[in-house]
Specification:
Length: 225
């Protein structure tokens, strides 16, 4: 019984990679905040959180290009811990967290002022490259990386005196930058005047695309030296 042996390559195979990158300004901001209230009466705690959350929503309702959403809301008992004594419940703690996402970076100081002046606490501020911008940049870089890969393959083929080459395998990967994050206390705004707004820089990020693959050139017999 004849057994077919696996067919080997039709030529010389070479692994190649091509990487391209570019720096892109951050074009989106994410502001996280929370409203907290502890009170012996759960109803009073809830009313305070509802009042502050509604005031923030009303102040930001007409802002263009802003997405405001509630990310969490919970009510938990508040406890008092004393040495050598069992813990005692002193009331209730109500917390509601929210998030603002926008591409209007110039409006950030005003939004911080609105959040804090109504009684909420800033819990996070970050600048990042938006998903739509990141996709556009990656698509453009991927085409550049593929062109660079082909150019490298052509140089290899020419060095081997081959007139053609085949691409056997081609893979692509990308790297998205980390957002620029600010600690909450660094981004806090004094409530007295807008002139005291912090000087915030949105920063930039590096987007990179890497293409790896394998090419094959025809077998060529080279004379021995």
């Amino acid at each position: 019984m004849a057994i077919a042996e696996p067919q080997g390559p039709n030529g010389t195979r070479i692994n190649l990679n091509a990487a391209v990158e570019t720096v892109v300004p951050n074009d989106e901001v994410v502001i996280s905040f929370r409203v907290e209230k502890e009170h012996k009466d759960a109803r009073m705690a809830r009313q305070y959180v509802n009042k502050v959350s509604t005031a923030i929503k009303n102040r930001l309702a007409h802002e263009k290009g802003l997405k405001l959403k509630t990310t969490s809301r919970n009510m938990q008992p508040a406890w008092k811990h004393s040495k050598d004594q069992p813990r005692q419940r002193t009331g209730w703690r109500m917390t509601q967290s929210g998030q603002i996402v926008s591409s209007q970076l110039d409006a950030v100081p005003g939004w911080l002022e609105a959040i804090e002046s109504e009684g909420a606490k800033l819990s996070g501020l970050q600048f990042r490259i938006s998903a739509s911008t990141s996709k556009k940049v990656q698509d453009r870089l991927r085409l550049q990386a593929i062109t660079l890969f082909r150019n490298k393959a052509a140089v290899i083929a020419k060095g081997l005196s081959a007139k053609t080459f085949r691409i056997i395998r081609l893979n692509s990967s990308s790297h998205a930058p980390q957002p620029v994050r600010y600690r909450a206390e660094m981004a806090m705004m004094a409530k007295s005047s807008v002139a005291s707004a912090p000087a915030l820089s949105s920063g930039e990020g590096k987007v990179a695309v890497n293409v790896t693959g394998e090419i094959e050139t025809p077998f060529i017999d080279f004379p021995a030296p």
